[in-house]
Amino acid sequence: MTERVDHRVRDDRSPLDPAVLAGAESFARSWATAVIGSSYVPMTRAEVAQHLQDLTEMLVEALFASPFRTAPGYEIGSRLVDAHFTGTDTLGRTIQLLGDDLLAELGSAGDERLQSRLAALQGALSAGYARALRERTLAEQEAIRAAVLDARDQAEAMLRASEARFRAMFTEAAIGIGIADIDGRILDVNQALQDMLGFSVEEMRQYNVRDLMHPEDAGSVWRLYDQLIAGECDHYRAEKRFHRADGEQVWTHLTLSLVRDDHGEPQYQVAMIEDVTDRHLLQNRLRYQALHDPLTGLPNRALFLERLGRVFNNRGKHLRAGLCYLDLDGFKVINDSLGHDIGDQLLVEVGRRLDHSVSGEGKLVARMGGDEFVILVEGSTGEQDIVDVADRVLTELEAPIRIAGHELSVSASIGIVERQLSGTTSADLMRDADITLYWAKADGKARWALYDPERNAREVARFTLSATMPRALERGEFYVEYQPLVRLEDSTVVGVEALVRWQHPEFGRLAPDRFIELAEETGLIVPLGRWVLRKACEEARRWLVEFGDAAPFVSVNLAVRQSRDPELVRDVKRILDECALPPHHLQLELTESAIMGTADEPLEALRALCDMGVRIAIDDFGTGYSNLAYLKHLPVHELKIAGSFMEGLRAETEEDPVDSQIVATLVQLAHALSLGVTAEGVETPAQAARLLRLGCDTGQGWFFARPGPPEDIDSLLRGDL
């Protein structure tokens, strides 16, 4: 076999920093010193040094490259084999030297990012080296096999020459080679295999191939072996462990081939054994780093999801499973006030306590990121199993944690999900646990919450409303109903309150209590309130044109967020102007708590509206925190007493003296401030009569009329009802 080795290195690389280049040159010299003599290389010492210098520069360039790629490491490994650096110690010395000296020579020994990159390049170099060596070995193996088969047909001289070539290749091969007969008796092994396993030729000849079985060998390895010696296949490859003479284990890449006689019958078996222990350990180390949290040492999100996936794939073994999704309460405050170092140490201690309190077969504690942890319980028997785990965790976290002179108290909120595995997925389990965690947070923290499908359905419906609300306004799904405000003295309709409704295509007719809070949260309350104001003013203008002086004013609820909208005054003025509605025909209602807590800037807006002629009313008066001294300075025209005070006045026979006294006091207060009084929630004639006796000016409620379309107000104004 003839092969040509190309020692050239591409010359289009970007120049290296002089200091880095000096370090690379120093490392290359150390590299050359370490590997010269470990392999037979057809180069002079100077050529070896230059070749390794080029490879070092290539490696350093890859180390600092952006974006980072491992392909140069793979190429370097291949070039080492191409240049015949294939001695039994060459790769090991190279990998060790790279890990021990390269970053130090480059002046970057403490750079974790470069350490991570170097580890990846080491793995790629090993992979490239192993692949090139394996390809070369396979070629050599084929040559051996051809030599064995062709030997019988050659002349005696050619036979001796062939034997000499085979012996040279067998003896000098960089990987272990062993020959055994078809019964498995070992006939010969080369020096590389002796060094690899620590046995001499004589000791190896005392073994049968089956004596080299490892208790943890995959069953497929020996099934393939049985097929090979039976002549059913000519070769196979496998990863296999061997015991060394000193008791240690060595990981190898085994290629076993069958040599047949002239009649095609199995005669010998030839094993090519490549030591891949370093590569295997490196792969295990990289896998561990990829699947474990570097701070706490707990399994990370990737390993947790892998384990959870296995649980769902083996549903026959476990019929149920549970999750505790845990988040530390107030961790951000600790991080921001005491620093991330204290926060990291706190997370380490929390991880240790969780692992200690939940350890056991079928349980896994993992850190999902930040201050979130998750506990998986396989084979649970019911919700109580997971509740017990959550209680143990909360108890374990009660003891203060001492870190750097600080005594820190930490608590956690936990979302609990436990269910049968059939009919659900791992994604469903994670989603519901996450949702339940936020329920625990919202319910007061330092507690657990159990997943409730009914509550979740309500939350989903709430989210659906929130998500569809913006388009609903565009599609015209909102409409306005009106409820009259009646003067108690003569039952005259003096005003109407505009009440927005939502005709949802899925949930049907929705009252304001289903969506106003969502509108506040999403900010849609401002455009929605503006739309309601315009619709109400348009109707008020129509009533003014049709009924003249008998036309009622229209009262529109104003949300807190609307009152703080800097465009409020301009919007009201523009709508009044466009509708040609006199300002005194519009009343804006704010709740007591909202108007009492109003800051100076929104209060100026209310004063501007009042100066414009718009009426201002306090809705649900008596249920908030009234500052009576402040009340007389507010730009208010009307107080609407909350309906909760009306219940004691509803009975036909007798009234509640407490409610009666409260209403009387509120009426006296309002009249003392020259404010009108409207009673809400009027439902019976007796109630209306008592409110008139107590001095209320107007009433509103089902006794007079339920909220309805504007046509109902038309009928009231015409006296048709």
General description of the model:
The chain has 721 residues and is α/β, with parallel strands linked by helices.
In whole angstroms, the N-to-C terminal distance is: 111 Å
Tell me about the largest β-sheet. Answer: 8 strands, mixed, barrel
Strand order of the largest sheet: 13-14-16-17-18-19-20-21
Oligomeric nature of the chains? single chain
Domain PAS: 162-232
Domain PAC: 236-288
Domain EAL: 462-721
Organism: Lentzea flava
Topology:
Blueprint: H1 18-35, H2 45-64, H3 71-82, H4 90-105, H5 112-150, H6 156-172, E1 176-181, E2 186-189, H7 191-197, H8 201-204, H9 219-229, E3 235-243, E4 249-260, E5 266-275, H10 277-291, H11 301-313, E6 320-329, H12 331-338, H13 340-358, E7 363-369, E8 372-378, H14 383-396, E9 401-403, E10 406-408, E11 411-420, H15 426-442, E12 448-450, H16 453-475, E13 478-487, E14 492-504, E15 508-510, H17 516-522, H18 525-547, E16 553-557, H19 560-563, H20 568-579, E17 586-591, H21 592-596, H22 600-612, E18 615-621, H23 628-631, E19 638-641, H24 657-672, E20 676-680, H25 685-694, E21 698-700, H26 710-718
Parallel strand pairs: 11-12, 14-16, 16-17, 17-18, 18-19, 19-20, 20-21
Antiparallel strand pairs: 1-2, 1-5, 3-4, 4-5, 6-8, 6-11, 7-8, 9-10, 13-14, 13-21, 14-15
Helix pairs in contact: 1-2, 1-4, 2-3, 2-5, 3-5, 4-5, 5-10, 12-13, 13-14, 18-20, 20-22
List keywords for this structure.
GGDEF domain-containing protein, PAC, alpha/beta, 721 residues, Biofilm_reg_signaling, 8-stranded mixed barrel, GGDEF_dom, 5-stranded antiparallel sheet, single chain
